[in-house]
Design a protein that fits this description.
single chain; alpha+beta; three-stranded antiparallel beta sheet; three-stranded mixed beta sheet; 3 helices; elongated
Length: 173
């Protein structure tokens, strides 16, 4: 071997080094693209999962409230049957039939998520469930409590369908 040849680089070695550097650069670039595509895939997968959950919730709510219109239309029927019972004499033979009809109607409506809001005198006034129609003097009832119920209210699966119409006891001025 000749020592003068040790310091000499050949064109083939420079080309090999340049090709290796270019290949390393391409590998790094491809790795970066792959990582970006993985991140994008995770984001898209999360978006699809969120959309699926939203659709499930919407379908569940649509099923829960599909009969909202029908049950809302039945509220005057409840009112009429209860008024008939309030005004029917105890000895009236039709009274038992009205009681049975009201009980069955209440059972079916309850099975479909309808819940009655029926405050009694003395209950706390709840503006989320009651609508105050008037303020009255009411002895023996706390101020700002329900003094009288004009009409029962109803909820459908935790959603107010109709507020209870009430009179509220007058507070101290």
């Amino acid at each position: 071997m000749h020592p003068e040849h040790d310091d000499i680089t050949t064109p083939d070695t420079d080309t090999d080094n340049a090709a290796a550097l270019e290949q390393d650069s391409q590998i790094e670039q491809l790795k970066a693209e792959l990582e970006q595509l993985r991140a994008q895939s995770l984001v898209e997968r999360a978006d699809i999962e969120n959309q699926r959950k939203r659709m499930e919730r919407d379908v569940r709510n649509a099923c829960r409230f599909a009969n909202k219109q029908l049950l809302g239309d039945l509220l005057p029927v409840f009112d009429s049957l209860e008024a008939a019972l309030a005004n029917a004499p105890d000895a009236d033979p039709l009274r038992d039939g009205v009681v049975l009809i009201l009980r069955e109607l209440s059972r079916v409506a309850g099975n479909n998520g309808l819940v009655e809001i029926a405050p009694v005198a003395g209950d706390a006034f709840d503006p989320a469930h009651h609508q105050a129609m008037s303020v009255v003097e009411a002895h023996g009832i706390e101020p700002h409590a329900v003094a009288q119920v004009f009409q029962k209210g109803f909820m459908l699966h935790e959603q107010l369908l109709r507020p209870a119409l009430v009179a509220v006891a007058k507070g101290e001025d």
